[in-house]
Write a structure and sequence with these properties.
By secondary structure, this protein is mainly α. It is built from 12 helices and 2 strands. Bound molecules: fe (ii) ion (2 copies).
Length: 308
């Protein structure tokens, strides 16, 4: 069997391009992911934004508008996933899972700090952290608000009310790790990183963004491991994962759709085409679902991995 540790430093199966390996891959456990977190520390407050301020001043107003649309989704998204995570921490089933989940909550707070620093020191939003969040909220679309303010908040509340509710835990991880992190965040990170690298701009932002992406792959690796365990244990839970994804994927497509466009429209923003963005998101999701052993169509996948 392929050893995932040898295939990627972050433990996320979406980076495996050889699809024939997906059905035999051995996922990292929460204990291994916790130990990986200990080996990947970083700091937001030592990042130098001097060059970023100069680059920002030289951008066109149109580019600034497109970039802030992308970044505001991340800024608010990191705040939402940091504050709506405590239900899952309390729903741990082993000491290793508890250790990993507490690291994830710290990571999300650190990610929000990076965006707050960038909006404060580079984009130039004055005031407090809270005032910058309020201002960034004006950039968000309706789909974003449905997913992050309604669906995510409700999933966290259900887990807080009953940490032993396995349906609620599976719904939460499907929403948070598969849709929000795996489908939206990593797609946006891949897109924006390529844009800024190609233009050679915003090095301080990119320094933090690459570390955030490394953290997110580790988080999604946990979600893939958890859902694989539950799908193997229970066909009912496997069907539940599929049903939640079928409900949320159209909303996620709306989150990825920029201002001024409707879902399904073709567009190009910052030199990136809509089919590239949506194709990346769909491919990453389907690779993870193959490993979990479910499909968007509903029936468990043929050849789904057997229990180790
Ligand atoms: Fe994050
Ligand atoms: Fe995350």
């Amino acid at each position: 069997m392929a050893n995932l540790l040898e295939l990627t430093s972050q433990g996320d199966v979406a980076t495996i391009s050889d699809e024939s390996k997906l059905s035999s891959v051995v996922l990292m456990t929460p204990q291994q992911l916790y130990e990986l977190w200990e080996r990947q520390p970083w700091s937001t407050h030592t990042i130098d934004f001097t060059q970023d301020r100069e680059d920002w001043a030289n951008l066109s107003e149109e580019d600034k508008d497109h970039i802030t649309w992308f970044l505001s989704s991340f800024f608010i998204g990191e705040e939402r996933v940091a504050t709506q995570f405590n239900g899952l921490v309390g729903a741990y089933e082993s000491q290793s899972e508890e250790a990993f989940l507490t690291t994830q909550q710290v990571d999300e707070a650190r990610h929000a700090q990076h965006f707050n620093n960038f909006y404060n020191k580079v984009v130039g939003y004055d005031g407090t952290f809270e005032q910058r969040l309020d201002r960034a909220r004006a950039d968000l679309n309706e789909s974003f608000k449905i997913l992050f303010d309604d669906v995510l908040v409700d999933a966290n509340r259900r887990l807080l009310a009953d940490p032993a509710d396995m349906d609620a835990k599976v719904d939460f991880v499907t929403t948070y790790h598969m849709v929000i992190e795996g489908t939206l965040a990593l797609t946006g990170q891949d897109t924006l990183t390529r844009v800024f690298e190609d233009r050679g701009i915003l090095p301080g932002f990119l320094e933090g963004f690459r570390r955030i992406s490394q953290d997110e792959h580790r988080h999604v690796a946990y979600g893939t491991w958890f859902l694989q365990q539950k799908a193997r244990e229970s066909p009912e839970l496997a069907r539940r994962i599929t049903a939640t994804l079928q409900e949320l994927i159209p909303i996620a497509a709306g989150v990825l759709t920029p201002r001024g466009f409707d879902i399904g429209d073709e567009y190009e923003i910052l030199g990136v085409r809509s089919d590239e963005v949506h194709g990346f998101a769909f491919q990453a999701l389907t690779r993870r679902l193959k490993v979990i052993g479910v499909s968007l169509a509903g029936a468990p996948e043929d050849g789904a991995p057997v229990a180790a």
